[in-house]
Automatic annotation (TrEMBL):
A molecular function (GO) term: hydrolase activity
Keywords carried by this UniProt record: Hydrolase
Protein's organism: Pedobacter jejuensis
Sequence ranges assigned to domain AB hydrolase-1 in this UniProt record: 22-240
One Pfam entry name: Abhydrolase_6
Domain of life where this protein originates: Bacteria
UniProt xrefs under Gene3D superfamilies: alpha/beta hydrolase
Protein name: Alpha/beta hydrolase
Amino acid sequence: MKYQVIEEDGFKYIETGQGETLVLLHGLMGELSNWELVIEQFKDRYRVVVPILPIYDLPILTLGVKALSRYVHRFLKYKNYGQVVLIGNSLGGHVGLVFTVAHQEFVKALVLTGSSGLYENAFGGSFPRRESYDYIKEKVEFTFYDPATATPELVDEVFKTVNDRSRVIRILTMAKSAIRHNMAKEVSKITIPVSLIWGKNDKVTPPEVAEEFHQLLPNSELNWVDKCGHAPMMEHPQIFNVYLEKFLDRILLK
């Protein structure tokens, strides 16, 4: 990433641009770089903010989706942005949902892409062969429609993470929290505009998850990205950005 990570008062984040605020929430094993092409597209018209979710820093006994939602709440109050557009991928979408249910007054609109919260087919309860580079490579490739999207740099980063004992324990704790925290009975409370941008070939949160979100969220739209897996903003960033731009134009410029 070419953007400097700002560290202040216990928060780490990047921030660029001016205007209405877009807050991008990364997934469980996501990096800031996952959002790079989204940042590039929108930074000339919006303030784009990417907080680093403290998955590896919070006390493990309190680690969970709700703890990350509370962190986002503290961060947004600290920065005093006013209402923001929350955009979340995978676990980041789940955190965005939990936060919005609790603090809808902070959120002008919500964008979910490959969000957990209803069902996900993730790594499961363990990494049985985490010392095997080929096994981890296969797991990372599973995330995408085109395995080539799993670059050597991305696989290296995941391999390094899952072979750090402290980090892998936290990842598994976080994943179990996300699975336990099913939001089917809560999301209908979200009445603000929601855009679902979903990979047609997502094997982690399959298309029926997007369809169920669309049914449950009373003010939602559903946009499909063909030949695309769990992270549309990485695999097909141009298409993702077109959908996002149309949605932002509709809700912010009317």
